[in-house]
Amino acid sequence: MSQPFTRWFAVAAAVSCVVVALPADAGAQAVGFGPRFAFVRGDVKADTSTRYSGGVLRLRTSPRTALELSLDYRSHLNEDLTERIKEYPIQGSLLLYPLSAAISPYVLGGIGWYKQRVSQVQGEAVLGSETTRKTGYHAGVGGEIRFGRHAALHLDYRYTFIGFGDRSDEEIAVEPGAIPIPGLGGLQDRLKLSHQGSMWTSGVTVYF
Q1: Mind listing the pLDDT tens digit for each residue in 127-167?
Q2: Across-strand partners of 204?
Q3: 113-151 in b/e burial notation, b at 16+ Cβ within 10 A?
Q4: CATH number, domain at 191?
Q5: Would the pLDDT of 203 be above 90?
């Protein structure tokens, strides 16, 4: 297991132990963590998506709300085998459940931190590296299927790098009116909603 995942699961396990040790009046809360996969399309014009693997930590603060922290990871070489690209997307999200049931839809929103490190390589030798960081908002919809009290399967779709109004930030180039949300065309135009990419995520969460 790589070092980022070792640290991730160590933190998740520590948080789980703390929540399990909470007194009975905090019983409405539940913390869970587990693996997830993400399929990311980084540009609204892109026709293909890239797969990431990672983990998710969810804290159910009430039957209808949850906080989520996720970490994904991807490492690959370019076609010429001269660069090693490592990406570490981290997202913090608030999840709202209109229904509290075995099959529960939810809406979500939050902020993400996206780190990419490009290293020039020759064989096993690293000649140099450059790191870039971006920050952006995301929002989406999804659903969770509960299997008893201690396990759940989730699937959701997220728009990333969402912008409102005119954007002048050169680091996050967005396309005006790029979010095709049925029924929100007029509101979308008035708010000048835009986004840079999107992602599907799916995973299994074990609750304690």
Answers
A1: 999 999 999 999 999 999 999 889 999 999 999 987 766 54
A2: 153
A3: ebeeebbebeeeeeeeeeeeebebbbbbebebebeeeee
A4: 2.40.160.20
A5: yes
Tokens read off for 37: 């996969």
Q: % helix / strand / coil in the chain, to the nearest 5? A: 15, 60, 30
Distances (CA, A) of 95 to 58, 66, 107, 178, 179: 9, 5, 6, 23, 20
Give the count of beta carbons closer than 10 Å to the beta carbon of residue 102. Answer: 11
**pTM, two decimal places:** 0.73
What backbone torsions phi and psi does residue 180 show, to the nearest 5 degrees?
A: -85, 75
Torsions phi, psi of 45, nearest 5? -90, -10
Q: What is the extent of the structural domain holding 71? A: 3-207
Our count of domains for the chain comes to 1
CA distances from 105 to 5, 100, 102 (A): 28, 9, 10
Q: Is 142 helix (H, G, I), strand (E, B) or coil?
A: strand
Residues in the chain: 208
Residue with tokens 């797969």: 51
